[in-house]
Write a structure and sequence with these properties.
Elements lengths: L1 E5 L3 H10 L4 E6 L3 H10 L8 H7 L2 E4 L6 H8 L7 E5 L15 E8 L13 E7 L1 H10 L5 E5 L5 H11 L1 H16 L4 H26 L4 H4 L2 H10 L4 H17 L3 H7 L6
Protein name: DUF2520 domain-containing protein
InterPro entries: 6-PGluconate_DH-like_C_sf (IPR008927), DUF2520 (IPR018931), NAD(P)-bd_dom_sf (IPR036291), OxRdtase/DH_put_Rossmann_dom (IPR019665), TM1727-like_C_sf (IPR037108)
Pfam family, one: DUF2520
Length: 273
């Protein structure tokens, strides 16, 4: 298919890098000239089509702007769309229905469940969360190569929960790591020691969970039912109300689902207050 990209940030460039093998890039557009120049260089695109021509010549338009600019962007280009067109956006939380329904428009939100701290130009496979009009789903299956994208349909009413899973898995994980780093600073560790000592145990934990599952991948005082150690932890965190609550909340989640009932019974009282 003939594709147009509006918004040349990290996500748009990374996705289009994988799409250009199977499809034709008609045009790239960004109000930021530096972003546009970077996209043209990385995607090896040499034309200079204006936005109206990109809209007219494309079979599918991808709006890869920040969430709060998607609707405004669509309204700005709507006057250039006269033939049937697929309109896609990459938002993880917003529905395809933010694009007004029209006779010639087939809408979809297609959210790559991944992080893009930088442009990714290496082959990999993404889970792609889709919701939208049925014709748009058929188009997505043609546009996105199976070797790089696994399409998963989502219930639009639950879309924000899918996005929350991603936020807890990535953004808030960074917040959690920041808290660990701050604790490490209190005992005199430098950032270098944090990365050398803490990150490997986190990676090992993820590896254990992948291999054994959540329950059998667990280790430590909660798993052992070591009440004395946990009491000392809570005593140390007494002056840190936020961390104290977080310790209790996360420990309770582990006890409720993952710990042997006998060990659970002896520990629950520690986390009630």
């Amino acid at each position: 298919m003939k594709l147009g990209l509006i918004g040349c940030g990290r996500v748009g460039i990374s996705i289009f890098y994988l799409l250009k093998k199977r499809n034709k890039i008609v045009g790239l557009y960004d109000i930021n000239k530096k972003n546009l120049a970077r996209a043209k260089k990385l995607l090896k695109y040499k034309k200079n089509l204006k936005i109206d021509e990109i809209c007219k010549q494309s079979d599918a338009l991808f709006i890869a702007t920040p969430d709060d600019k998607i609707v405004k962007t669509y309204k700005n280009i709507r006057k250039y769309i006269t033939a049937p067109k697929f309109i896609f956006h990459f938002s993880g939380s917003l529905s395809s229905k933010i694009i007004p329904k029209s006779k010639n428009i087939y809408r979809a939100s297609i959210h790559p469940f991944a992080t893009f701290p930088e442009v990714v130009l290496t082959p990999r496979r993404y889970f792609l969360f889709f919701e939208g009009d049925p014709p748009a789903l058929r188009a997505v299956r043609k546009i996105f190569p199976k070797e790089n994208f696994l399409i998963k349909r989502v219930n639009p009413r639950l879309k924000n929960r899918y996005h929350l899973i991603g936020v807890f898995s990535s953004n808030l994980l960074i917040g959690y790591l920041t808290l660990i780093r701050d604790l490490a600073k209190e005992i005199g560790w430098k950032d270098r020691e944090f990365y050398e000592i803490v990150i490997p145990i986190i990676e090992s934990t993820i590896k254990n969970v992948k291999k054994y599952g959540l329950k059998d991948g667990l280790s430590g005082p909660l798993k052992r039912g070591d009440k004395g150690v946990i009491k000392k932890h809570l005593e140390t965190l007494r002056a840190k109300k936020g961390l104290n609550r977080l310790y209790k909340f996360l420990s309770s989640a582990i006890l409720n689902d993952l710990v042997d009932p006998k060990a659970k019974k002896s520990l629950l009282d520690l986390f009630k207050n």
